[in-house]
Amino acid sequence: MNWEIENKGAFILVTTLGIYSIQDLAILFDDILLLDGLHPGLKILFDNRNLDCGGLDFHGIQAAKHHYIELDARIGKLRAALLVKSISDFGRGRQIMLLYNSEITGRIRTFLDEIDAIYWLANKTERSEELA
Fold first, then answer.
1. Measured at the alpha carbon of residue 125, what is the angle toward residues 121 and 128, in degrees to the nearest 5?
2. Which domains does the chain have, with CATH numbers?
3. CB 41 within 8 A of CB 73
4. In the 8-state DSSP scheme, what is residue 54?
5. What is the dihedral of CA 86, 5, 23, 67, to 10 degrees?
6. Average pLDDT over the chain, rounded to whole?
7. In this predicted model, what pLDDT tens digit does every residue of 56-103 receive, in sequence order?
8. Which end of the chain is more exposed for a tag (fewer CB within 10 A), N or C?
9. d(CA 47, CA 3)
10. Any idea what DSSP says for residue 58?
11. Which residue has the higher pLDDT, 105 or 14?
């Protein structure tokens, strides 16, 4: 698993690719914690559209839980959007939301649409809701 971290001003963009690994996730979160300007309410867009999560099962999702909890504890009120490419990855992301959101001060949400993810990070309604 590889990644690139960019400060986009309004949010941090983390672009991932390769094959998902719990060990690499821990290193990625350590890299995020080394960024300058961490503050409560930090917004992160995880662009996982080029990440192969096919091997990620419920046990793997539970194993990653403490990494998200630690990241949220260090930052406070973390707002993380998980951008994925497939319905099966969306389902995994929903499991993450259901398991983690009750244990962190912030929020994690999964998206198939990049614009909707950015709208949510900006605390706005989703574009699709605005147009309805």
1. 110
2. 2-131 (3.30.750.24)
3. no
4. T
5. -90
6. 87
7. 888 888 888 888 888 888 888 889 999 999 999 898 888 888 888 788
8. C
9. 10
10. H
11. 14
